Amino acid sequence: MVVMGHVIGPHGILGCIKVHPYTEYIGGLLDYSTWWIGNGDGTWREIEVATARTSSGNTLQVRFKECADRTLATQLTGMQIAIPRNQLPNLPETGEEGYYWSDLIGAQVINLQDQKLGSVIGLLETGANDVLQVQNADKNKEEILIPFIDQAVINIDLESGVITVDWGIDY
User: Which CA distances in Å does 153 have to 80, 93, 157, 164?
Assistant: First the structure.
């Protein structure tokens, strides 16, 4: 399974939820009529999408067929959304290791001085270039935004779950 987003919380009273997708394009999950939902322990439950659309901001509004009211929708808050990897489009053959944005979520980010900056919580598409959202290692501080460009992102090691960046701890 590839984690493609998470449930933010309920939306309205008819069982809709708000989903924060980890996809490159905000509507990337809309191509799938069946999602898998889980709480992060590796156990997944298949769930069928009744309706889904993009919302204002970077969220989706979704209603599952088996979720008929706000109470049920509230119980889904914090759950992860996944799609089986074999249902995702093939990555282009570039000679380099390919990855989906969702593969980067949770990766540890360190800089060239081997200082831990935090872990990836998302990616933003800004138009000019994409941006890594990093939850600062010091939980009391704001998130760190790092341009997802070759000059800043030096190495992505999916096997070890580490992204090395040329970025100062105090930027």
Answer: 26, 20, 11, 6
Instruction: Judge contact between 123 and 104, C-beta under 8 A.
Output: yes
What is the distance between the alpha carbons of residues 155 and 167, in angstroms, rounded to a whole number? 12
Token pair recorded at residue 71: 């109470």
pTM to 2 decimals?
0.67
pLDDT tens profile 26-43: 888 999 999 999 987 889
Closest CA to 72 of 37, 104, 101: 37
Structure token digits, residue 79: 């759950």
Q: Give Dmax over CA atoms of the chain in angstroms.
A: 51
CA 33 to chain centre: 19
Distance CA 70, CA 95 (A): 47
